[in-house]
Write a structure and sequence with these properties.
The complex is a heterodimer of chains A (215) and B (141). With 215 residues, chain A is mainly α. Chain A contains eleven helices and no strands. Chain A folds into two domains: 89 residues, RNA polymerase sigma factor, region 2, helix turn helix motif (Rna Polymerase Sigma Factor, Chain: A, Orthogonal Bundle); 112 residues, Winged helix-like DNA-binding domain superfamily/Winged helix DNA-binding domain (Arc Repressor Mutant, subunit A). Chain B is rod-shaped. Chains A and B meet through helix 2, helix 3, helix 4, helix 7 and helix 8 of A and helix 1 and helix 2 of B.
Chain lengths: 215, 141
């Protein structure tokens, strides 16, 4: 995958601009997910992503990208930094990937992951089970809905890392380098986020039920 | 234990799915248009840069010529004091000197050795800045 990207980039550098379309097509959605996680506004996220691709193009032409580096890491670094610049442009407070909000320090280790989730649980009661027919289908729909709700409520210092790991398919080490945070923090956040989701699911369903529905 | 690892696997497989977002349908086309525009701008920038370089080089040559002429005239004046100063060489140098003084006068600059030094200083600064802009301030990600 890396080799084909490098080959395309080399040809783009030689003037075949149209090949850049392949890079855009391949990375646009995954990087848009990351940008949206930071900016939380589709228009701003698209603007930021456009700028990221432009920066990438200019870097390729100027020879800023070295083939020794892994392209995806290089590109997602641009995407992340550009989104942070956009965030600072439109928001008075800084985007802080390293620390949780002060108010969250009242919570037990990892409980800030619950906070928004339970505040938005009221809507959850509106899940339409009628259209799903069987009990199993409605349970599966509810599990998916819980995951969806959980992911949308997770604070950004978790969601950005989760996005990088699961959507952008970056390794712990790559995430740690891009975000400039310790490797242990990255591993810990991913582990915690998964554990909390597991806890939420196990509060709603017994382990036996859950296994029955997910298998 | 095995049951829990099954749940872990399920979470691993599903936690990312709700995060996946798609860009608008015309994103790629817009992007390629932007890239083409950027390429066009780059071409324009190159042309402008080349023109500015020529202009700076021309201006530098002019300044140096004027400087050389002034030095030559001054040295001639000192050396040939008391000797006939009506010769053709002197007349030509006088003419060039006057012409340059007039040209600089148009820009409101009086041609003195001090002014010349300032000009050379500015040129050196412009040169250093353009080199620095090209090699040092080039953005890398």
């Amino acid at each position: 995958m890396q080799d084909s990207d490098i080959e395309i980039l080399n040809r783009v550098k030689k003037g075949e601009i149209n090949l850049f379309r392949e890079i855009v097509e391949k990375y646009k959605d995954r990087s848009f997910s990351l940008t949206l996680r930071i900016l939380k506004n589709r228009n701003e996220a698209e603007d930021s992503l456009q700028e990221s691709f432009l920066r990438l193009y200019k870097a390729i032409i100027a020879g800023g990208f070295e083939e020794k580096a892994k392209f995806s890491t290089y590109f997602y670094t641009i995407v992340y930094n550009t989104a942070i610049e956009h965030y600072r442009k439109y928001n008075s407070k800084n985007f802080n990937i390293t620390s949780i909000e002060i108010n969250d320090s009242f919570y037990k280790d990892g409980d800030e992951l619950y906070k928004n989730y339970y505040e938005s649980r009221i809507d959850e009661a509106l899940i339409d089970t009628a259209e799903h027919g069987t009990e199993r289908n409605s349970a599966i729909a509810e599990i998916k809905s819980i995951i969806e709700k959980y992911v949308s409520c997770v604070p950004e210092h978790y969601s950005v890392i989760l996005n990088m790991f699961y959507i952008n398919e970056l390794s712990y080490d790559e995430i740690s380098k891009i975000l400039k945070i310790p490797l242990g923090t990255v591993k810990n956040r991913i582990f915690r986020a998964k554990e909390k989701l597991k806890e939420i699911l196990l509060r709603e369903f017994s382990a036996r039920e859950l296994l029955e529905y997910i298998n | 234990m095995d049951n829990l690892s099954n749940i872990d696997r399920f979470i691993d497989e599903n936690i990312g799915k709700p995060m996946f977002e798609k860009t608008s349908g015309d994103f790629t086309d817009k992007m390629i248009r932007e890239i083409e525009l950027a390429k066009e701008f780059q071409r324009e920038d190159k042309r402008t840069f080349r023109f500015v370089n020529f202009a700076i080089a021309g201006f530098a040559a002019l300044i140096l010529t004027v400087g050389a002429v002034i030095i030559w005239i001054s040295s001639k004046n000192i050396d040939e004091q008391g000797i006939d100063t009506e010769g053709t060489g002197f007349a030509i140098s006088q003419f060039i000197g006057n012409l340059n003084t007039k040209i600089f006068g148009i820009f409101g600059v009086s041609l003195t050795p001090e002014a010349l030094l300032y000009f050379i200083g500015i040129l050196v600064f412009v040169f250093i800045f353009s080199v620095a802009d090209k090699f040092l301030f080039r953005r890398s990600y």
